[in-house]
Structure formats: structure tokens, C-alpha cells
Amino acid sequence: MIDLDVYCDRIGYTGVREPTLDVLNALHALHPAHIPFETLDPVLGRPVALDLASVQDKLLHGKRGGYCFEQNALLRAVLGALGFSVTGLAARVTWQAPPERPTGPRTHMLLEVEVEGATYIADVGFGGLLQDAPLRLSADVEQETPAGHYRYLRKDETYTLQAKLATGWQSVYVFTREPQVAADYMVSNWFTSTHPHAFTRANLLMERLLPSVRISLFNRKLTHRHRDGRIEQCMIADADELDAVVRGEFNVDPPASLHAVFDRLPR
User: Fold this and answer.
1) What is the pLDDT of residue 219?
2) What is the DSSP string of the chain?
3) 46 φ, ψ to 5°?
4) Residue 101's pLDDT band (boundaries 50, 70, 90)?
5) Statement: residue 267 has pLDDT above 80
6) Domains of the chain
7) CB 123 within 8 A of CB 131
8) Of 68, 243, 253, 263, catalytic
9) Residue 266 has what pLDDT?
10) Of these residues, 31, 108, 132, 243, which one is catalytic?
11) Which member of 28, 31, 41, 123 is catalytic?
């Protein structure tokens, strides 16, 4: 069972515990600010366990974050314990993919939540573009959150999430509303955490989404994107600096030395 007291303390939530849209919004904003997205385990060659006890031990009791299967599994357990109707879905990632790339597998977990007579998509685990609010599942409607602008396109039973950037609309991922079972996520998680060519196995990604700034680490590049439009970037010089960034910027204790990892990171 999920420990709601520990979860609420971890993300700094002190409000009511009821299945309302206000509560969903509050949790969705606080979660990515306090439990960072990170791919340290896949990069280090460590197994990623998806059972709830392991996810809680890592994300709640340890100073760690995780990637989509862990983050959204945790949020799904929390929402279920609060009385929300939640269904696990899966998406094919298209974010920053060249147009000639073949269609990829369903390697991203997201959640469909029914609340107050409407359907929302909750997703606190998409590294590279963490979202700070659930989005109503309505096609061709631009939705603004404090951290971005989004919309869903629909073709037959397929939805495409798009984000509005300075260069225009960019597709993020494609999904249907077919419910996923634990075995579906087990297979996808095994691929994304162990295959040598899987993006999350070959690249170190970390991200926190705070009220005033989005902090992102992609291999050796650290980026701060401020809400006022300012962007600050720097390259990490060595393994000691990487360790300091992981601990200081993301409040994560690495599970192993990062010296060997740093040497393998793409420049």
C-alpha cells in the first residue's frame, strides 16, 4: 500500500486528501518540483524495479528520482488511494525525433484520470518536458499551464500531445486509450533500462520543474530555463562537478560513483 503521509511530506503537500480537480492540480505541480526525473539507474546498468514497495523505497524514502514508469506508477498509487479513477496508458515518444525515424515502441507511461465528470491526462514522468498540470483530454483545444502551452490532436482513436515552442508546435508523444497492464510496463521498462541503444540507457537525463525555473541535465549540459524567458547553460567539466550538480541542483544522492559514468557521456 502507498504511504500517503510520506508522499505528501516528500512533495510538501498539506491540503485536503479528496478526489477533486484542485487536489489533482496541486499534486501534479508539486511532484516534479520535489521528485526529479532521472535515469541514473539505467545509465549505471542497475535494474529498475516497478513493484510499489521498490518504487516507494527509492523515490520516497531515498533521495532519488526516477523515470516515467516509476514516477507515474507512484502517482497512480497515490491517486488511487485518494479515490480517483485512474487508468494506465502507454505512448510512443516522438519528442525531437527526426521525421524519417521509424515509428517506435510504446515506451512511455501516462495516466488517464476521471475527475469531476471529465477526463484528464496526468503525466509527471516525461523527462525533457516535465509537465506541471494535468491536461484535459480534449482535441484541438490549446491548454496553458504555468510551464507551457499544449494541445491534443486526434485522428480516429489516436491522440497526439503537442507542445508549443518558439518555433511552433512540436509533437511530444502519440497514444491511444487502451488500458495497460503490469506486464506491458514490465516489458517496456526492461527495454528502456537495459537495451544498449535505448535512449534512457545511453544518456543521462535529469529534470526538476520548479515554480520559477526548469532545471535540466542532458549528459554534460546543464540548463536553467526561467519562467521570465532567460536561459542559462553550461557544460560540466568533470565527474566531481557532475556529482555536485546531481546532489545540489536535483537533491539526488547517486547510487554509485559517477566517475566512470562521466567518461561515457556523449559530449
Assistant:
1) 97
2) ---HHHHHHHHT--S--SSSHHHHHHHHHHHHHHS-EE-HHHHHT-----SHHHHHIIIIISS--B-HHHHHHHHHHHHHHHT-EEEEEEEEE-TT--TTSPP--EEEEEEEEEETTEEEEE-S--TTS--SS-EE--BT--EEETTEEEEEEEETTEEEEEEEETTEEEEEEEE------HHHHHHHHHHHHH-TTSHHHHS-EEEEE-SSEEEEEETTEEEEEETTS-EEEEE--SHHHHHHHHHHTT----SS-SHHHHHHS--
3) -95, 145
4) confident
5) no
6) 204-264 (3.30.1120.150)
7) yes
8) 68
9) 83
10) 108
11) 123
The answer to whether 226 is a known catalytic residue is: no
The pLDDT confidence band at residue 103, using thresholds 50, 70 and 90, is: confident
Evaluated on CA atoms 31, 189, 5, 38, the torsion sign reads: negative
Give pLDDT, residue 141: 96
Reply yes or no on whether 68 is catalytic.
yes
